[in-house]
Every structure is written in structure tokens, then in C-alpha cells.
Amino acid sequence: MDLQAVAFYVLAAMLVVSALAVVLIPNVFRAGLFLVLAFFAVAGLFTTLGADFLGAVQVLVYVGAIGVLLLLAIMLTRDVHHGSPGNRLWLPASVLGALLLGGVSWSLLNTTWADKAAEMPVPATAALGTSVFDLQNGFILPLEIGALALLAVVIGAIVLVGEKK
Amino acid sequence: MSIGLEQYLLLSAVLFTIGLVGALSKRNAIIVLMCIEIMLNAVNLTLVAFYRYGGLDITGMVFALFVMLVAAAEVALGLAIVFSLYRSRETVDLAEMDLMKW
């Protein structure tokens, strides 16, 4: 078993266990901490796939920003003692989830993929930057629209939670 | 046993299912937001796996980057909505948000 396989199975086990803990643990704050652990595991998996920049962004944005924001929201809403109860739909939701997982697994295991696993992953940060900011086939306009969307979200969040004078 | 595309795709299918079941069956609004984040992470994992093992080229990573951008916007706005709901209703229980329920 090579090193990538070891890393993959360790990170995958960590990821599945912490994602299950987010759903199953009754304590909301601990569920948030497990979510942060799941984000870390996904960052590690990105790195095993050769997406080093995305791994770094995952740690910065998900662990740093979104994780802290969610934990702050949990502490501010003082609803922790109610726990994380399920609703009446948990049985149909589980059946639907099992059906979805079965269908997706069946179809992806019965598809022949163009697998080019022989190549070693190379650091892709420079290639990603070149691809995004390329003047002919780049993604400059979507990037600008994304920046505008973030600005709109910041203003919207301030309007939603700002003190009413 | 070497790791290929199928292992990563299976892992993200499992992750997506966990997030979906959680998002459909939880009553705490913040837990539902967390489960949506798990689902978005599963999709990102799929995109990056396709970047690495063929199919999508570097575009897979660009898409994953934009998904992250939208996820950050979504969680900020979602938490703002949860905050303002909590301020007016004193709860984040989705079962009590039934003003527009038929």
C-alpha cells in the first residue's frame, strides 16, 4: 500500500466519522467542532489530489471563516440546551438517502472512467492562477461577479442583523 | 491497492448523503446550515477528483474555487437570516417557523 492510499484511508475515515458526528451528536457546539474537523479532513484530501492551493483556501475559508462564524452563531443563539432534535421526516429522509447512495454508488461503479492515475500530482497553484486570469479563456468576469456577490452579501447581512434605530 | 477516481467518488457520495439526510431531518437551523456545508464540500471533492483523474482539466479546480465563494456567501447570509429570526422568535427551531405553512 503506497503512501497516498494510507493518507486517503486515514483522512476518509476521519471525514466520514466527523460528518456522521455532526448529524448524530445531540450537543450543537460539539457538532460544530466536528464540522471543523471534517473541513480539515477535506483540506487534506485536496492535498492528496494535488490541489495544494485549494487545500490552503479550504483551511483559510472553511476552517478559519465559516467554522468560526458557525461556532459564534451557536454561542450567540443560546439554543444549545435544546440540542439537535430530529423532525418527523427522519425516516423518509434516511430511506431517500439510502436510495440515493445506492443509486449513485451503483452507477459510478458500473462506469468506465478515463483514469489517468499513473501521473504523480504536481503543485497546481501557478496553473490555477494562469487559468483563472487568462485574458482569452479565463474566468475574470465570473470572478468580478463573485466579488460583487460577496459585497452584496455583506451589505445584506448588515441590513438583516443591524440594530433597528 | 491503489487509490483511483472511484474511491474518491464513493467517499463524496457518502459525504453528500450524510449531509442530505442531516439537512432534511434536523430541526436546528444552524445544524441544517452545517449539513449544507457538508454537501458543498462533497461536491468540491468530486470536482477536484475529476481534475486529478481526468475528465475535467484545471477547470475542475476553478469550479471548486467558485463553489467555495458561493458557500462563504451562503453561510454568511444564512446565519444573518437565522440571527434575525432568533431575534424576533427567540428560537432557531425550524419546526416553529410555520408562519407561511399551509
Molecular structure report:
The complex is a heterodimer of chains A (165) and B (102). Chain A has 165 residues and is mostly helical. Chain A has a single domain, classed as NADH-ubiquinone/plastoquinone oxidoreductase chain 6, subunit NuoJ (Four Helix Bundle (Hemerythrin (Met), subunit A)), CATH 1.20.120.1200. Chain A is built from six helices and no strands. In chain A, α1 (3-24) runs antiparallel to α2 and α2 (28-48) runs antiparallel to α3. Chain A is globular, with a radius of gyration of 20 Å. The mean pLDDT of chain A is 87. Chain B is mainly α. Chain B has a single domain (5-95), classed as Helix Hairpins. Chain B has helices at residues 5-25, 29-52, 59-89. In chain B, α2 runs antiparallel to α3 (59-89). The N and C termini of chain B lie far apart (54 Å). Chains A and B meet through α1, α2, α3, α4 and α5 of A and α1, α2 and α3 of B.
Attribute tags:
heterodimer; A: 165 residues; mainly alpha; Four Helix Bundle (Hemerythrin (Met), subunit A); B: 102 residues; Helix Hairpins; 3 helices; 75% helix; elongated
Helix content of chain A: over 70%
CATH topology of chain A: Four Helix Bundle (Hemerythrin (Met), subunit A)
Q: Note the run of SSEs of chain B as H and E.
A: HHH
Query: What does the main sheet of chain B amount to?
Result: none
Shape of chain A: globular
Q: Tell me the count of domains of chain A.
A: 1
Write the layout of secondary structure elements.
The complex is a heterodimer of chains A (165) and B (102).
Chain A: H1 3-24, H2 28-48, H3 52-76, H4 90-109, H5 125-132, H6 140-161
Helix pairs in contact in A: 1-2, 2-3
Chain B: H1 5-25, H2 29-52, H3 59-89
Helix pairs in contact in B: 1-2, 2-3
